[in-house]
Amino acid sequence: MKFSIKLVLSTMIVLALALGFSGFYFVNNVFENSLDREVGQALDESSILGFAFETAALNVPLKYSVLPDSVVEEIASKLEMGGQSGGRLLRIADEEKNILYTSSGFTADEGLLPQTDQHTKSYRVIRAQDCFYVHTCVSINALNRILYLETMKDVTDVFTERALGFSLYRKVTLVMLLTGMVIMLFIASFLTKPIRLLTRATREMAAGDYKYRARQISRDELGQLTGDFNRMANALEETICKLEEEIEAREEFMGAFAHELKTPLTAIIGYADMLRSHKLDEEKSIMSANYIYTEGKRLEAMSFRLLDIIVAKQDEAHLQETQVGELFAYLQEMFAEKEGTDIRFSHEEAVVRMEVNLIKTVLVNLIDNACKASENDAVADGAGSDTAAVIEVTGRTVREGYRIAVRDYGIGIPEAEQSKIVKAFYMVDKSRARSKNGAGLGLALCAEILKIHHSELQIESKVGEGSCFSFILPAEKRAYEE
Length: 482
Ligand code: ADP
What we know:
Elements: H1 3-58, H2 69-81, E1 90-93, E2 99-102, E3 122-128, E4 131-142, E5 145-154, H3 156-191, H4 193-206, H5 221-277, H6 282-314, E6 320-323, H7 324-334, E7 341-347, E8 351-354, H8 356-374, E9 389-397, E10 401-408, H9 415-418, H10 430-435, H11 442-452, E11 458-462, E12 466-474, H12 476-481
Parallel strand pairs: 7-9
Antiparallel strand pairs: 1-2, 1-5, 3-4, 4-5, 6-8, 9-10, 10-12, 11-12
Helix pairs in contact: 1-2, 1-3, 4-5, 5-6, 6-11, 8-11
Bound molecules: adenosine-5'-diphosphate.
Residues 365, 369-370, 373, 408, 410-411, 413, 421, 426-429, 433, 438-444, 467 line the site of adenosine-5'-diphosphate.
């Protein structure tokens, strides 16, 4: 059953109970008050009637010392006729409680007589056929006789009113319940709207639409729940996106890896087959063996690079405070003998947190790439074929930390390729890269190393003008924060 229907039903039950009890109490209270009033009136009337009887008895001729039964009947008959609407209902009994006179229509039994004596008045409410009466009994003292006067006062109206009251109240209750139900349906529908929106959002998400969010329409607990749900959905979407990207990257990696493996292997197998199945002259044999060796070397280099990447991915950063000068001195010494290039190093002295050997690997890769991109055959117009290509390696303190950049004036990288070159096995010009023993893994390794330094590679490049690869090693505080 729907929650809103449950809400409506429970409210209806509470409303019905409340209306039922209050209605019963109200109608019954009115009835009891009216009945008490009628009983009071009946008792008053019987007292007045008794008094009238006693007065009438005073007018009896003097010859009677005791009121005779015939006079009792006569007075009773007169009193009976004196009623406003066609006669009173009364009964007279003597001292022994023997009935002396009864009005026609006086149907009450004699149950009240034994309970009444000279000093008490008694009454009860009785039902005769479909009518209700107040039956009273009082004693009268008339001419040396104690008589008992019983009356019956019709109070059917009071009971009819009660029945009418209950019937009316039932109708009012029914109308109120129906009206209440309609109003409650609207209220319940309004109150449960956030739940419906949340349910829809969960269904949409379960069906794979991770972008769907529940609309927050209130600020109460349900509104907060919607907010929390949306926050959870954001986190979930982010994680799923990351996972999807990772799966995609892995698939791309596997495809590229298989492709990169196939090329040298095909060459190795082809030349090895030629060597074993043909008798080749010495020159061809050496050439074949050479191909096998260089392709084998390329495979070896590739497997080492891959291993480096895997290690870098799993590595936790063991960053240490390092003097930047030490790093630059190492690079300067390493590339001192590099022919055909003029590598200019300049740096601001600083102490930076880094894993120095890993950063050395990054910079060696970047400088190596810059050298390859600046080599004479690489630069399209051949300008500078006589002069050494300039490469600048700089280190500067910036607001965010310490920025190291490697700038070359070589071939540059087309804009569309710039975001792809950090992917494993990606090479802008495959044949050229392969001829230089490249496998498209250097920048991927750099990116992994920088990731564990909470940094990333920035690439600025223009075809024919050169490239600048840079990264910022975050200032100490930020490195800790992250
Ligand atoms: P590789 O081992 O082939 O050098 P990298 O991952 O280091 O692989 O580089 C990927 C590709 O990016 C290279 O093949 C090259 O085409 C391009 N590249 C890298 N650095 C530069 C640069 N400084 N100038 C121009 N192209 C570059």
